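To illustrate the input format used throughout this study, we show a single complete record. The first block contains the structure-token representation of the backbone; no residue identities are included at this stage. The design step must infer an amino acid for every position from geometry alone.
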């Protein structure tokens, strides 16, 4: 099986030339046609309705999930246990999603549709009825996550709110990663016991940096943060210092002690921390593919395919929403904002009319029109960036949305904080393969 996924499925990943073809598509039907000549084949053939980004993402994800299930069904020990460990990460995310939906009174069916099928377990729907952390833990003790409950030392007296849900999720992840790490070190033979711990060390470091960065204004104490950090990884020796950080500059100073993370806070590259993580992860996967007779091949294949689905989704989203997606389209909304932009009427005179028309028409511009708009608005990038920052507080959607008029992306992290990154590169240069990452 390992030989199968070394020799075939790595070649089944989209190539740079195929990505270039995808970025030259004019609409979603073109995208479907281009994907049909790849390993995705006719995965959209049963779609009777009009194509949308959500449908493409759903079908691409389902294809990946079916392939993973096939591997899991054919696996024997210790590969079977290794694959079970992988699914536990999805289970933790699913549990967090259901609990969060419950406290915000979301429809259970809608929530379950958003869960990852690879992380399904029988007691997952029952989490909606939990009234406090103790109820959550009692239900999770009847799931494959039971052994991580004991290791995480959670306080069952806490009430259910967004912050405590994140604390539960991160403590479970900590226990999960530590247990997974020990399994790869003690239960597997070389080269697995060498390669897989390195991959998990990266996962641990990613969690440490994300938790430290996202919790700056959360009110968590140093001790509480430290309890969320996995006790291994390249940043383990700096855990205490990171838990005491109160600003991004101090985090940067500490993280830079680890060579491979030195560029993560270098703003000159135009990349966010998340983008650097994606790039680092794909580089590790590329290296893992060079090994033979190791489970790391399957890990690398899964992570690469997940990134591939994200890339396809971003391209589809760009094609479907290539016009500006902003919460403000009129000068009134900007001028009435309590924190008025120093641009004043510059926004009204130079961008508002064109932007409002484009949002209303919501038509996909041709390549020539896109090029003309980019040239016309080149000098406005930084100015529009300022105004957009003022208005993003009302955005509810998580993830990435392209804002074409100022070529920016915005994200909402787990603590509902918004970050914006201006883009100045063509989309064809922003796609992740096994050696580059979409920004």
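Output of the design step:
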């Amino acid at each position: 099986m390992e030989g199968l996924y070394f020799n075939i499925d790595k070649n089944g990943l989209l190539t740079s030339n195929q990505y270039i073809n995808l970025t030259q598509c004019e609409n979603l039907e073109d995208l479907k046609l281009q994907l049909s000549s790849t390993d995705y084949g006719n995965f959209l053939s049963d779609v009777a309705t009009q194509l949308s980004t959500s449908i493409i993402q759903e079908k691409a994800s389902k294809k990946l999930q079916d392939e993973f299930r096939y591997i899991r069904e054919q696996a024997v020990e210790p590969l079977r246990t290794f694959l079970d460990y992988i699914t536990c990460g999805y289970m933790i995310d699913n549990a967090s999603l259901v609990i969060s939906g419950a406290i915000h009174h979301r429809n259970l069916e809608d929530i379950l549709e958003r869960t990852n099928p690879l992380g399904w377990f029988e007691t997952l729907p029952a989490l909606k009825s939990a009234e406090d952390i103790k109820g959550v833990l009692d239900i999770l003790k009847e799931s494959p996550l039971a052994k991580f409950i004991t290791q995480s030392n959670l306080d069952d007296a806490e009430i259910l709110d967004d912050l405590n849900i994140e604390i539960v999720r991160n403590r479970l992840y900590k226990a999960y990663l530590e247990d997974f790490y020990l399994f790869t070190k003690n239960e597997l033979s070389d080269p697995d016991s060498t390669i897989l711990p390195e991959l998990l060390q990266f996962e641990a470091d990613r969690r440490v940096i994300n938790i430290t960065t996202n919790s700056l204004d959360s009110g968590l104490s140093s001790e509480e943060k430290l309890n969320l950090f996995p006790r291994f990884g390249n940043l383990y020796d700096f855990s205490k210092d990171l838990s005491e950080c109160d600003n991004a500059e101090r985090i940067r100073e500490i993280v830079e002690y680890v060579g491979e993370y030195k560029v993560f806070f270098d703003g000159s590259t135009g990349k966010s921390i998340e983008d650097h993580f994606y790039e680092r992860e794909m580089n590790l996967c590329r290296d893992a593919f060079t090994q033979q007779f190791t489970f790391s091949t399957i890990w690398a294949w899964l992570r690469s395919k997940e990134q591939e689905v994200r890339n396809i989704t971003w391209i589809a989203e760009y094609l479907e929403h290539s016009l500006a997606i902003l919460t403000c389209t009129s000068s009134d909304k900007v001028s009435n904002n309590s924190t008025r932009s120093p641009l004043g009427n510059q926004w009204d005179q130079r961008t508002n009319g064109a932007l409002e028309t484009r949002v209303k028409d919501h038509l996909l511009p041709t390549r020539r029109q896109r090029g003309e708009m980019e040239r016309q608005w080149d000098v406005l990038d930084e100015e529009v960036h300022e105004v957009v920052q003022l208005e993003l507080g009302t955005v509810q959607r998580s993830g990435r949305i392209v804002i074409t008029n100022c070529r920016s992306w915005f994200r909402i992290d787990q603590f509902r904080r918004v970050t914006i990154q201006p883009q100045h590169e063509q989309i064809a240069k922003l796609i992740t393969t096994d050696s580059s990452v979409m920004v």
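Structural context for interpreting the output: The CA atoms of residues 338 and 390 lie 9 Å apart. The chain has 19 helices and three strands.
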